[in-house]
Amino acid sequence: MRSWAAFLALLPVALATRPFLNEPDTGIEEVLGDTPEGTLPDLENIVGLPDFDWAARRYLNASSYTYYRLGAAGEWSYRNNLEAYGRFRFRPRTMVDIRGIESRLSTSILGYNFSVPFYISPCARAGLAHPDAEVNFMKAANEEGILYIPSLYATLSMEEIAAAKPEDGSQVHFQQLYLDSNDTATQELFSRAEKLDAKAIVFTIDSAADGNRQRGNRYSPPSEETEYVLSDWEYYAKIREMTKLPIILKGIQTVEDVRLAVQHEVPAVILSNHGGRQLDSAPSPLEIALEVYEEDPELFEQIEIYADGGVRYGADVLKLLALGVRAVGVGRPFMFANAYGVEGVRHAIQLLKHELAIDAGNLGLPDLKKIDASYVKWNSNGWYT
C-alpha cells in the first residue's frame, strides 16, 4: 500500500516530464504529411483547431510561428494549459432530449448578446500570418456573431481594425489595452477606444514584468532594460475616472484577486495566465476556475468571470462553463487559422461551434445555460479519481 501511495505522489511529476505532443495524433500526418513546406493544405481538410497549428508550423517562417507558439521559460504553463482539461472528466447524462441544443448556445457578455459563449482573445501581430491581419478577425467575428477583442499591439491600428466593422454599428467589440503610469498616453488610448465605439476596455494585468521567453529570444533578443509596470487597486480607481467604458481585468489567477475585484466593483474579470507566456508554473485557467468554485462559488454570481488559455475543443469550453465561467477566450488557434485569411478564421469558429453543440448533446445537456458542476468530476488536487 505504501509503494502505491508513493507512486500516486509522483504521478503529477511523471506526467509533467513525459514527452510532449504540441497537438494530438489524430492522423493528420498520415493524410496531409506530403503537403509541401511553405504551403497550406486545403481548408476543407482542417477538421479541428489543433490542425491549424500543424498547418501554420509548416507554412509560416520559423520566427513568425515561434512568436505565436512560444511560452515562458521551460513552457510548463503553456503545456499545462493544454493538458489540464484532460485531467477532468465529464459525468454525461442520458435519456435527455437534446435535439434543440444548436439553438441554445447563445450567451450575453456585459449585456451584449452573442451566438456562443466563446470569443477571439486579444493576440498581437496578426500580420505575421496574413496581410489583412486583424481585419480578418473582425470580419469573421461579425459573420459568426461572436465577440472579438483586438490587441493594443496589433499589426494594424485600432482605427484600421474598427473600420472593418459594418457601418450600421451592429457589431460589438471590446478593446484590449496595456496601461502604465503615463496618464496622458492612457487618456489618449481611452479616447480612441471610445471614439471607435468599443463597448469595454480589457486591461491586461498579468504582465507586470517582462516575460522569460527563451524560445522567442532566439529570434528577437529582449531589451537589456527590464520594464516593471504599475498596476494596483489605487491605479484602477484612478483610470476608472478617465473613461466612461467598463474596464475588465484580464490576468486574474487566484480566488483572492477575484474577491478583491468584486470589492472594487470591477464589472468582469478574465482568468488567464497570458497563454503561459509570462510566468512559468502559473496555473491554467481551468485550475483557477476550480479554485474559485471550491473556495467561493458565489463569486460567479457576483461578477462576470471569463477565462482563456489552452482551449482547443468544445469539451474544453464546456468544462469551464460547468464551473461557472460565463465566456471563454480562444487565442492561438485563431492566429494560426488566420494563415488562411478570413475564410480560415470563419472555419475555425464554425468548427468550435459545431464541437460545442455535439459535445453538449453527448453530455446530455439540452441547453447550454443549464450547465453546472454536476456535469464534471475532479478531486481536490485536480486529478481525476
Descriptive terms for the model:
385 residues, globular, seven-stranded parallel beta sheet, alpha/beta, two-stranded antiparallel ribbon, TIM Barrel, single chain
Widest β-sheet, arrangement of strands: 4-10-9-8-7-6-5
Which CATH class applies here? Alpha Beta
What's the pLDDT, averaged over the residues? 93
Query: Segments where pLDDT lies below 50 for 5+ residues?
Result: 7-11
Strand content: 5-15%
CATH superfamily: Aldolase class I
User: Judging from the principal axes of the Cα atoms, what is the shape?
Assistant: globular
Named CATH topology: TIM Barrel
Short description:
The protein is α/β, with parallel strands linked by helices and 385 residues long.
How would you explain this protein's 3D organization?
This is S-2-hydroxy-acid oxidase. Keywords: Oxidoreductase, Signal. Belongs to the FMN-dependent alpha-hydroxy acid dehydrogenase family. It comes from Aspergillus lucknowensis. Its cofactor is FMN. By secondary structure, the chain is of the alpha/beta class. The chain is built from 16 helices and 11 strands. The chain is 39% helix and 10% strand. The two termini are 17 Å apart. Helix 6 packs across helix 16 and helix 14 crosses helix 16. The longest helix has 22 residues. It has a single domain, classed as Aldolase class I (TIM Barrel), CATH 3.20.20.70. About 1% of the residues have low confidence. The strands form 3 sheets. The protein has a 7-stranded parallel β-sheet. Strands 1-11 form a two-stranded antiparallel ribbon.
